[in-house]
Amino acid sequence: MRGEVQLRPDRLAVLIDADNVNADVVEPLFKEVSKYGTAYIKRIYGDWTTPQLKQWKDKLSEFAIQPVQQFPYTKGKNATDAALIIEAMDLLYTQNFDGFCIVSSDSDFTPLANRIRASGLVVYGFGERMKTPRAFVQACDKFTYIDILQQTEALAVAAVAETKESPLPKANQAKSGATVKLQPTNLEEAKSILQEVYEVAAEDESWVELGLFGNRLTQLHPDFDSRTYGCKQLKQLVKVVDIFDVQETPNKSVQIKLKA
Fold first, then answer.
1. At the top level of CATH, which class does the domain 11-149 belong to?
2. Element of type H or E holding 162
3. 187-258 shares the fold of 11-149
């Protein structure tokens, strides 16, 4: 399984299950996708004759997403999932892509993720924390919870609004503390995961380069996200949990070592 630093494919196919994802996530979703590459294909699947997808209809042109119509031919069967899977396989066989982004919380996409990765491509999953089964999370190279994206986006919007309302000059706004920031939370859970990964990554309790550590972290926990614990980056989180010595090498790389 590939690590976080290596996950930088250029050509991505973004496939969205409209029946399973709220339209409010679209902007932070594509911001996140842009970290990994360029979305050459953006398709969304659902029955567009139903009123439930109205919110998505308003987003299609704005974000250049191609809607794919899928009628529910049989009650109790998810035709949307089947359509997405079939098109994903068609795109896979073109060999024009380096990775796929599957946006859904549905366990039906677990075999698809496994099949794509078996072909040597990267799979990024996006879904809701409380709905996505563990099997689908583990089938992806990297999994991001939509909840985190929405929370981060909401904080960013609030920070911008607060800055606009501030009577202070721009030069003084940063010093005023009038910004909305993520707050470190649930650090005991983060400590446990990071220590577990360090014990796997380190040799003889030596210093470990943070990039290598991040790779191993993604391998063992595809859904690990520093933002879950109130930190924008892994570098910030390893300092906040305070179980590591942290040093910067002459070539500006960061290394960590578990405190004695």
1. alpha beta
2. helix 146-165
3. no
Q: Which two tokens stand for residue 103?
A: 């946006």
The helix, strand and coil proportions of the chain, stated in percent and rounded to the nearest 5, come to 45, 20, 35
47 touches 40 (CB < 8 A): no
Sequence ranges of the domains in the chain: 11-149, 187-258
Collapsed DSSP state (helix, strand, coil) of residue 259: coil
CA count, 13 A, side-chain hemisphere, 211: 8
User: For domain 187-258, which architecture applies?
Assistant: 2-Layer Sandwich (3.30)
- pLDDT tens track for 163-212: 566 555 554 444 434 344 556 677 899 999 999 999 999 877 689 999 99
Chain-centre distance of CA 120, in angstroms?
20
> Considering the entire predicted model, what is its pTM?
0.84
Segment 200-251, tens digit of pLDDT: 998 776 899 999 999 999 999 999 999 999 898 999 999 999 999 999 988 8
